[in-house]
Amino acid sequence: MIGHLVLLVASLAMAGGAVAETLTTPEEGVEVRIDTVLAGNSGKAFDPALRPLKQPFRGLFGYSSYRLVQGERRLAVWRREEQFMLPGQRYLVIIPRGIQGDRVSLSLMLMDGSRPLVNTMLSLKDNGTFLVAGPRYNGGVLIFAINARIRKPAAKNLPLQASTGGGQPATQP
Amino acid sequence: MTSCREARPLLPLFFDGELEARQMRAVALHSTRCSECEHELRELEHLQEAISAHVSSLVDTIDVSQVWAGVAPRLASRAPSFGERWGAWWEEYRAGWRVRGPAFAGVALAALLAVVALRPDGPTPTPHGKGFAKIDNSAKLDSMQTTADSVALVTEPETNTTMLWIMDDAAGGIEHVSDEAME
What we know:
The complex is a heterodimer of chains A (about 170) and B (about 180). Helix content of chain A is about 15%, strand content about 50%. With about 170 residues, chain A is of the alpha+beta class. Chain A has a 5-stranded mixed sheet, with no helix packed on it. Chain A has a 4-stranded antiparallel sheet with strand order 3-4-5-6, with no helix packed on it. In chain A, about 40% of the residues are buried. With about 180 residues, chain B is of the alpha+beta class.
């Protein structure tokens, strides 16, 4: 009898865990912003547009100059692929998977031409920024700052376009 | 590329996040290629977990349930009346004002100077301009596949920002970390 009870409790706990792991996908999608930054050691300029990233850049990199070369912001629909064109024949494919607590689950693939350089699945804090860095470009190094913010249903008047793939003109943040 | 001899003494500092950015990156990249250093980092992780678990278990054994029961009666027996409290406050106010005035001005001046001095390096606003709230960029990688030669994950502790650094020869256009990183 006790054995059955333990089994039942364990089953319920596992079912609860499975439900907790389930990703939710509200009606609205995720506002994804990709800022492409060119970092180098020629000069000592820090682009004012990158002020929110100053602390992470200082802590992670040793470059003397950082310049925003491209910024793009889009509303990504859940489970739909979004492609962001990047400098140097590269592009980033992002698929928002769902919400888990206060985190956004994303699939992220960095392509170098036709070659998938990195393919990763990550959970990012809502309105958090994840950095991908390393590719060389124009004598410096590219840093891609990927920001994802859950789009709440109330905020419908933002001047964003919902797209289902393909590039959009760059929007400066 | 960094050698084991250079990286090994830095591993504990790397684990505690006490290295400079270049060194952090170099040690992180080295550990992706060196199984021995990677193993040592895992050992450090296990050690920290063991210490943390041990301290937690000790804290759990402390019985604090009787503390308040012992303190509360003593407080109740010594609580002054409203009149006594008012009188004491007034006496303290009269006696202390001559000292407190300049002291207050000094503290205010120090606070003002601190604000002015720290302003350029103060907390940065959130990406969407909602003031000076603390930034939390924490991220968790659930899975990763790569065709690059090596990749490294480094986290900046102030804002919990995670950076994925890619090194690749085949593409011919990916940055390498030089030995300068170990300077």
